[in-house]
């Protein structure tokens, strides 16, 4: 009898890297052995929840419709075997239901053997700068001529997305220099996050500026919009013109600086995730204020974001005893931000697009001489989720090919 492999509870493709060879079970646990010798254990309740049949997952959306708490009892295992297609078949009691599991999907979700089941697709790699260092640079000249979601588009985007996920930064070169073309370029990755500065914003010296960015003065290392509860995860800066003297771009990996601080001055490092600073952008027509730590760690102690922008800090409103330690830690960090070995420096060329993680990287620029020529960047924001989703789609497309 020849039977097809079952569906998976998602839209992805899961190649079979090893076959299921043997299966054994207890009422609550299935243990399988794969053709390469690996052994994996799956809880019965985990399998029941992750079945792909129409009582568990809506076939139209592949979203779960099963509510485990509505089952007649704990989903115990009455039988388990490998069928002719190589799928795992499990009989669940007391439902009296046989469900089948795709071996490629099971193997890819083998939480029993995964070192870090939540590991990101591209590991985060903190980097130092120094002279001669620059961003990963890729030729993207044909990007807008490719079909959306085509192999040609992926060939340009995949390495770019990898650099952004791993290093927080990439530079695409050879893109058009027409004003507003950034919108079509950004859309190849995902939707733009509009702000009070617009869908796209122009970085050039302008009269009556509502930000230091719109002058020709130097900007210290900073992230954009730390004044928001959720600061944008990504920023894109697209160079349309650059003929001024000065205005060199400077970028630092905020995670590398934070890790160096953790090593060199643990006390200062412990202070910064604790103290909530005030970030304020009190312009003539808007008034954004948010309180947040300068360094945020996730539940596992890994760096999640930095929120550094000295010109957007408002008055500290911390506990009385925290004020001096807070400023001491702040100044320790500020001194490190000036160390040249953390920074890379480069000059924008028209057609360059720099994409960077705005909750991780700090960007700065030297002052430029406004009358020496024109410097015009257009920028936009996006979320980290868009890069991650786009990268997963590229991987999915490759698996399905
Ligand atoms: Fe900025």
TrEMBL record:
An individual GO BP term: carnitine biosynthetic process
Ranges where the TauD/TfdA-like domain occurs: 155-381
GO MF assignments: 2-oxoglutarate-dependent dioxygenase activity; metal ion binding
InterPro entries: AlphaKG_dependent_hydroxylases (IPR050411), GBBH-like_N_sf (IPR038492), TauD-like_sf (IPR042098), TauD/TfdA-like (IPR003819)
Reported cofactor(s): Fe(2+)
Classification via SUPFAM superfamilies: Clavaminate synthase-like
Tree of life domain: Bacteria
The keyword Oxidoreductase is assigned to this record: yes
Keywords: Dioxygenase, Iron, Metal-binding, Oxidoreductase
N-terminal signal peptide: none
UniProt-listed Gene3D superfamilies: 3.30.2020.30, Clavaminate synthase-like (3.60.130.10)
Family per similarity comment: Belongs to the gamma-BBH/TMLD family.
Protein name, per record: Gamma-butyrobetaine dioxygenase
Protein species of origin: Halomonas korlensis
Taxonomy of the source species: Bacteria, Pseudomonadati, Pseudomonadota, Gammaproteobacteria, Oceanospirillales
